[in-house]
Amino acid sequence: MPALPPLPSLPRPPMLAELLPGSLRQRMTEQLSGLRIPAFTVPAPVAKLVSRLPQQPPTRLLTLALNLALDRILPRDTLAPLSGRHLQMRVLDAGLTLDFSLAEKGFHRFTSDQPQKPDLVISATTRDFIALALREEDPDTLFFSRRLRMEGDTDLGLLVKNTLDAVDWDALKTRLSGRRS
């Protein structure tokens, strides 16, 4: 079967900030940069419902996000000890349990014929995971305040934490903003 020709690249739509006049954009950026995620928890009835739903769709979203970051901001060679290991992320207030693993082609949903205890379980609330992702909270602060828990292979937990700490988030922001200009 002959190879298909590459699809033409589409122009990138302008970002909302690019459509605003300079002074308004600057004021909005200044105001938004000071915002913090408010303290919240997912309501118990919602968590009860979510815990009964299939966990595959949110797990696929997590692995997609991790694969987008892999090799861009998460160095694959550093994460090599995670290969083939059963990792689990528990979003405590939302009733989510996401099982995943790292393979040669990237992160994927963990599946097994036999029930298996995860090698590493990372637990926190929705708010705390979002704060970690946005770098509003430091993993050490959350860990020592018992808002982030790691169970299982502590070496894997330290590897994950140290990898996240080693990411140069400011350089990444600069690189991403440079692409948009």
UniProtKB/TrEMBL annotation:
> Is this entry keyworded Transmembrane?
no
Q: Which GO terms describe its biological process?
A: ubiquinone biosynthetic process
**SCP2 domain boundaries:** 76-165
Among InterPro entries, the record links this protein to: SCP2_sterol-bd_dom, SCP2_sterol-bd_dom_sf, UbiT
State which pathway it belongs to. Cofactor biosynthesis; ubiquinone biosynthesis
- Keywords associated with the record: Ubiquinone biosynthesis
Cell inner membrane recorded as keyword: no
Instruction: Point out the signal peptide segment.
Output: none
Specify the superkingdom. Answer: Bacteria
Q: Name the protein family.
A: Belongs to the UbiT family.
Protein name, UniProt field: Ubiquinone biosynthesis accessory factor UbiT
Q: Please tell me the species this chain comes from.
A: Thauera terpenica 58Eu
Q: Which gene encodes it?
A: ubiT
